[in-house]
Specification:
The protein is α+β, with helices and mostly antiparallel strands. The protein has a domain at 3-117 and 162-188. It has helices at 3-10, 13-31, 37-62, 105-111, 175-194; strands at 66-68, 81-84, 87-91, 136-143, 156-162, 169-174. A six-stranded mixed beta sheet has the order 1-2-3-4-5-6, sandwiched between helices. α2 packs antiparallel against α5. The radius of gyration is 24 Å and the shape is globular. The protein starts with a helix and ends in a 17-residue tail after the last helix. The mean pLDDT is 88.
Length: 211
Amino acid sequence: MTPMDRIVQNIPLSFFMDVMDNTNGAWAKASHMKYEEPERQSMLGQNRHAYSESAFRDAAVSSGLSCTSPHTKPAGGRYSLVSSDNIYFIRSNIQAHCGIPKPTAFRKSWASLNRWLDPVQLDIFSEKEIPDNTRLCALIVSTYNRKNEDQTVPAFLGLGIPDHDFSRWKLLKPLEDVFALYHDLDVTSKEVYEKQPEIIDKAIPRLKKRD
């Protein structure tokens, strides 16, 4: 089973739909606030982040997923963590590109769960431990538009699965493509149901003749 198969089968579509709706609302709210020009850029970025964190948690609660706000290690901040069925979601920092986000300690720690996505080379003389393949880490990824473009919505909003050492993406999809996976699964399920063979009873009852 691929990571996306696991996500689609265990995480409700409503979560990702609410992440999109809530995040768009968060960015619009941040953009329409009044800022003095010297502080505008930094305050806009901080408010986008703060409102997006809240939007992320609200989406989780609406879909019945577990949501916590752990402290970073080393201490100094907090972040939002959403989980269900051993699948863990965090957010990337908001950046100008879709490359791997800033490799903070907590992001690298969660990404290490994805070690099983890399092939394991074993031999009879090796004592390497086979990575746990029951847990998965994914990130909600967002980027901003250039100055002369729309600042009220993200330039990109998607789902990323990082490499175990947080050096690159194993997979990165816009949320619209994630929605399509649920649609495909729904269509396939309906087709399987509709194509169930109809069993026709061809037996003809006959009265037993009397001697």
